[in-house]
Write a structure and sequence with these properties.
The chain is α/β, with parallel strands linked by helices. It contains five helices and six strands.
């Protein structure tokens, strides 16, 4: 049985929040990471980027305005514009302020999906505090709030964690590489 990356009910709640709140999904909290990610793209000469959980596409537009030569696509379960997962694999997958919006039971499916499309690196920022916004049904928009140690364990099942940087009291930025699996534990 295939795992779902989002339940129908939660997807409806996210879509409503996007529709009702102009400032939701536009990178207000995550803009501080854009220059660092752009530097990573330039340094590693990445040719393709997927913004997984791209919201309204702010990061996509940022990169397009600076690197017209890069293929950058977006996916977001709550967006009418980006609701179809692009096909193919990407040098870099970016997921800014997304993991805490993923239902706990769907984390494995989401990270498996990201890993299956990742050629080289995966970077994500995660907040582990209640969001300022609530879903229309009253739940906090950060439906999965976990300590960074737990996030490290979860992400380590799918990627090699290369770097973790605290970007705020309860915010962190993970830089990860594709995890090559083999029978050799070293």
């Amino acid at each position: 049985m295939e795992q779902k990356i989002v339940s129908e009910e939660y997807q409806k709640q996210l879509k409503k929040l996007h529709e009702l709140t102009e400032s939701f999904g536009v990178g207000n909290v995550t803009k501080k990471h854009y220059a660092h990610i752009e530097m990573l793209i330039s340094k590693k000469s990445y040719k393709s980027v997927l913004d997984y959980g791209c919201g309204k596409g702010d990061f996509i537009e940022y990169i397009k305005s600076r690197h017209s030569e890069i293929v950058i696509d977006g996916f977001d379960v709550a967006s009418d514009e980006y609701n179809t997962m692009p096909s193919g694999r990407y040098d870099l997958i970016v997921s800014l302020d997304v993991m805490e919006h993923v239902e706990f039971g769907a984390l494995g499916a989401v990270l498996s999906e990201i890993r299956s499309r990742c050629e080289k690196q995966f970077v994500c920022s995660i907040a582990n505090y209640p969001a300022a916004k609530n879903l229309p049904d009253g739940r906090n928009a950060h439906v999965t709030q976990l300590p960074f140690g737990t996030w490290f364990q979860i992400l380590s099942n799918f990627f090699r964690i290369d770097q973790f940087v605290r970007t705020g009291k309860k915010e962190g930025f993970f830089v990860s590489s594709r995890l090559e699996t083999s029978s050799d534990w070293r």
